[in-house]
Amino acid sequence: MIAVYSLLLLSAASIVFFALSGHKENMGKFNTRINGVSLVITIILAMTVFNQGTLLSSGKAFLIDSFNVYLIVLTAFVGFTTSLFSEAYMAHEIELGKLTQARLKLYYSMYQGFMLAMYLVLTTNNMGIMWVAMEGATLTTVLLVSLYRTPESIEAAWKYFILCGVGIAQALFGTILLYYAASQIGGSDNALLWSVLHEHATELNPDILEIAFVFLLIGYGTKMGLVPLHNWLPDAHSEGPTPMSAVLSGLLLNDALYAVIRNKMLIDGATQTHIAGYLMMGFGLVSFLVAVLFLHRQKDIKRLFSYSSIEHIGLMTFAFGIGGSLATFAGLLHMTVHSLVKSAIFVTVGHASQISGTQKMTGIRGLMKTQPKVGWGLLVGTLAIAGFPPFGVFTSEFLVFLATMHEYPWLTPFLLLGIGIAFAGLFRHVQPMVYGAKPEDKTAINANLMPIMVHLGLALWLGIAIPSFLSSWFSQATLLISGSAL
Amino acid sequence: MNGLMAVVQTALFVALSPLLMGFLKFCKCWLQNRRAPSFLQPYRDLLKLTYKQPVISQEASWLFCVAPYLIFTAMILAASVVPFIAVDQPTSAEADVIVLVGFFAFARFFLALAGLDIGTAFGGMGSSREMTISSLAEPAMLMAVFTLTMTASTTNLSGAIEHVLQEGLILRPSFVFALFALILVTMAETGRIPVDNPTTHLELTMIHEAMILEYSGRHLALIEWASALKLMLYGVLISNIFFPWGIAESFTLSALGYGLLAILGKLVFLCIFLALAETAVAKMRLFRVQEYLGFAYLLGVLGMLSHIILESTR
Amino acid sequence: MNIESQDFYTQAILSMSALVGLTSFLMLGQGRLLRLIFVFALQGLLLTLTTGLSAYSLDNPHLYISAVLTFSLKVIFIPWMLQKQVLEMNMHRDVEALKNNTAVMLGGASLMVFSYYVLQPIIHTSSMIMLNALAVSLSVVLLGLLLMISHRQAVAHVVGFMSIENGLFFAAIVATNGMPMVVELGVAFDVLVAAILFGIFFLHIRISIDSLDVDLMNKLHEVDK
Asked: What is the span of the domain harbouring residue A337?
């Protein structure tokens, strides 16, 4: 438990530190170190959970079980590698004169704020605090989206702020309904604690919880970028600085999904029906198919990959909606590999657009010749995200298909078709960017490609073999969520 | 005894209505930093008008001359229906709230006809506007009134007021909405400021004044008196339906005295409120009146809905 | 469960909920920004009164803290900030031409009916006051959304956003007698930060498009043009 406290305190302290510190040259390095320390702490936490099982803090304020522990490590890991990338990226932006030192300070302070919000969403046991932290994540990132202060970025940030703010308000209404249901069976101040609610899930009023779940799904679904609530997502991803896009896609979407699943577990316990699952399946499938079609019509490279994020989050929602142990396992795996691969892609995309000086895909050409490492990174990343074997995305998508074929065979053609269209959409854009003649005026930049390699390497590893500790967590989480063992 | 009471009450009603007008004008003057005429000025005006010989256009038909008497009679009849000082009014038993609305409609119909009768541009314009407004105001008013009658399960005004009295102080959301709706409708129907300006004779804005522009002498006096009565009627309706406390429930002298004092106090309060509102709010364009009355109707519907949803038995 | 048989607290809460619903309607039809902000402050005041009332009658001291928080945030700070912005931008004389005002109003009324319909299933499990409070607060939330859709000024959007928050707060107060203290503090903190961020955004939007009309922010599209 000390690990959790120190994790949260460290992030909180570093927000203040970055906000108050003067103009320093090495803020980026410092940010990386803080995230490195966070990563170490989370690994220690993970080892404790591995040895002792579920942890509940003394005031029941924090809960670490097999479901969230690996997400915490994943968050810290992606946070760390992205900060490695952003060190070089931000230095380059300063050189170009796009940013001032004061904005950089804001950036690092808010980066830590975002990390704090993410850790809080994952570790807290209180559904109310979970909402507060989720809203906090919006508040911290909204200024980062408009960091460049261009009219487009301000528009994107405003859209993000309004849509997510309004959306997440629906989730608060759902949470209030949840609390109301809990107070009906005599809950007091601890009636919002997930562990308590889960214990008494069967006693909760199913009618109220059904309504509550609709609001929770719409609310957190806005954060996840489910269609038709996704409008903010491509804008925020394309107009903000690239490291922000990487953490938004890699972490925020996951955590919003995490919140939905936590709630779904309560609702399933109370209703004993599959209503929540059907809702998630519907939203998930629609998001998946719509995003896939939009992939073809994009011109901006970051928008392209943000639609791909919507596609994958839709697939995960669908998988968790199916609900059986196989689908849940697949969903958990997909959460992990998607966030690894997608953040790696955004890092590459950041480098690629810095090389070309534009985010328009027509302006990015011949990466293989200009800077082969970036070109290969983009190519391999796209292969991985499109679901090519032997990467982890293939494994998880394959498992989702398997589960669908088993439970709802008539839905499989839609999934297959979607995957096919997505593949075509990604490659028709990526292929000319990677291959082709070297543009004359473009030169290689100073890029840190370590994060990409590590991420893709891990995704590859997960595709070939899942390490035993992770698979045991996955199995426990699957048991927890779906109620049946794999 | 009861019959006598009804006559006395109605007579008092009719007699006091110019005083209400005078007090309202006094309040407005005072709020607008002007020197106010005496409360009794409306009486003097009426008196002066009755002395004067009415001038009647040669185009006018008999209808033009008859209309003022009809309008005034309709208003007196309406006044006899509304419980003023005491609640147990025998005339109330004969005519319920729908008849009351009918009286208003009757008076308005003849006023509009009289406006059209002489064939001047202003008269016709005023009539058409008046009918437009009233066709929008009437549903709103009926909605508000129905909210009340549904609560009391009677359309009889005396019965409804007794019902409210018996229950004691109950905060009803539906009454809050109905009250607001009725206040808005009152403003529109009696030609007060956001909808019509009673003091203006500006061609483009006047409504009520446009219709009666050709009247003079005792005809004008009757119409002015009738409109004062109408204002008072609405005032008494609002105060006695929503705040019936103080109204006499028996015909003893002390009860009646208290009843008179109570209703006068409520009317004074309403007048001050109306004067404040008229001073603070600007007259709106004619084309926005439908929004205003649409809002009143919305309030009426909300009142009705909240009665059905919030208050009725399940 | 007639209203006559309810205690005075219930009646008062029901009336409050009716009034809160009414203020939402008032905001919906309001084209003048200053008056919009005023009505918003009025709604905040009603919320404060409701909170105070339930703190008093349920003898729940932590609700007093929420009442104070609501008062200082929703009645003083946010209206003050918005008003300052409006005056600085010299927008207080502008009347926003609202398209289809009547249709919007009718839409609002049907949203209210809709929220009752949505919450119908919980009727048999809860007392009347709970159902009504929840339904009214849901309709305040939905009306806030409608307000944001029908208005074009960024200030009006913020008012809509905050009134959505008001609706949620009302639900929390009346249906569940307030959330746990720590959650309530967290929510209040979020609202405060959001308000400050909105202030910063007004500045940025003004610099970038020289107006607070969000319809002018139309550079980004679902599909690139």
From this structure: 295-486
